[in-house]
Amino acid sequence: MVKTTADPTDVTALLPLPPATFHILLALAAGDRHGYGIIQDVEARTGGALRLSPGTLYRTIQRLLEQGLIVEPKRRPDALDDPRRRYYRITPFGTAVARAETRRLTQLVRLARGVGFLTPEPT
Fold it and tell me: Is it true that domain 15-98 has CATH number 3.40.50.10420?
């Protein structure tokens, strides 16, 4: 039996994304953010429906860093900001993965709508 390793550039190998991962990537798509800024963005974007705990956030961030979906930029967006804050930036690979997840979710919604689970949105 030949053992193969996953292609680190294969975006579909990481799908489906856990909800926390997808929301963190969405938050970073708007620009570099520190951890608390990500938590605030996710809560605001979801109308409070999703509140990331610091433990979930930082475990997920560690995994995203290891997978190459995000990086810590060398330059801070605000030189006067608290130097203890760590900022994160989505990578081009992270953007590609988030787009692939968006396409996957869009297809699921189409299928659900097709069997009557959702009514068409008014245009």
Answer: no
